[in-house]
Amino acid sequence: MSWWTDQKAKRALKKALKIYESDHTDWQRDVEIFKKIESAFMLAVKGEDSVPNNTVQKKGEIILWQGQGQMHETGRTPGRYVGTSQGFSIPLVGGIRYRVGAQRGTFVAGDEVQAYKEVGQVLLTTERVLFNGQMNTKEWAFAKWNGASTTADESDYIFHVSNRQKTSGIFFGATQGREFNRFLAQAINCAEEGVDVVLKSVRKQIKELAEDEPQAPTPASIESARIARLEIEAPKS
After folding, report:
1. What element of type H or E holds 117?
2. Distance between first and last Cα of the chain
3. Are 17 and 214 contacting, i.e. CB atoms less than 8 angstroms apart?
4. Running DSSP on this structure, what letter comes out for residue 134?
5. Which CATH number is 15-76+117-233's, of 3.40.50.720, 2.30.29.30, 3.30.420.40, 1.25.40.10?
6. What are the boundaries of each domain within the chain?
């Protein structure tokens, strides 16, 4: 093996190891999360909440998860006048002047954006997502659920429900957001299929995760992958 080929192989191995470490960290985190989900649904089967809370629950409703997040909802940036203004300014003190008069022109409303509000407690139940803050309380019921979207790092969520025209959601941060995402999927499944079905499904996913543990790369595995890629990319005769 030439020096240049050896250097290329070392760089490829270093890159592959970096990808493996990231993938394995995510895999390990998912294993931990699904074990927490399993524990929550084992309690749910017995009609018990997974976390202590003071929430007034509906009949048969069970708390599956609790966290902290920042609630946000659709709002507008400040509007402005486009055009000219008329009026005059009154001198005060120290070179400061106060302008009085009227605006003349067209008022342009601000853009619609997600306005971030207070941080509060987030509860995920078998029937809904709840936000409890000092000044804001909001719920998103699965019975009205139209869907949800999240950022690539799973940190920020927007929820779509049929009883509201404007969207709203919760920001968690990447670590807690990843956990919420997986709990949310199972909570929605539970609302549709029941606790027993979800518990069985979660246990199956835990088994599949164990079988899919990422494997550390070796020079031989990298070379095999390179050859396979060349065969795929080779022009067909």
Report:
1. strand 112-125
2. 31
3. no
4. S
5. 2.30.29.30
6. 15-76+117-233
Helices 3-45 and 174-193: crossing angle, nearest 10°? 50
Rounded distance between C-alpha atoms, residue 51 and residue 82, angstroms: 53
Contact between 217 and 20 under an 8 Å Cβ cutoff? The reply is yes
Question: What's the confidence (pLDDT) of residue 124?
Answer: 97
Mean pLDDT lowest among 18-32, 68-82, 151-165: 68-82
Cβ atoms within 10 A of the Cβ of 63, count? 21
* SS3 at position 133: coil
Kindly indicate the confidence band of residue 52, based on its pLDDT and cuts at 50, 70 and 90: confident
Listed residue (103, 100, 65, 28) closest to 184, CA to CA: 65
**Percent helix, strand and coil across the chain, each to the nearest 5:** 40, 35, 25
Gap between the Cα atoms of 149 and 157, Å rounded:
6
pLDDT at 162 over 80: yes
Task: Please state the length of the chain.
Answer: 237
Q: State the pLDDT at residue 11.
A: 79
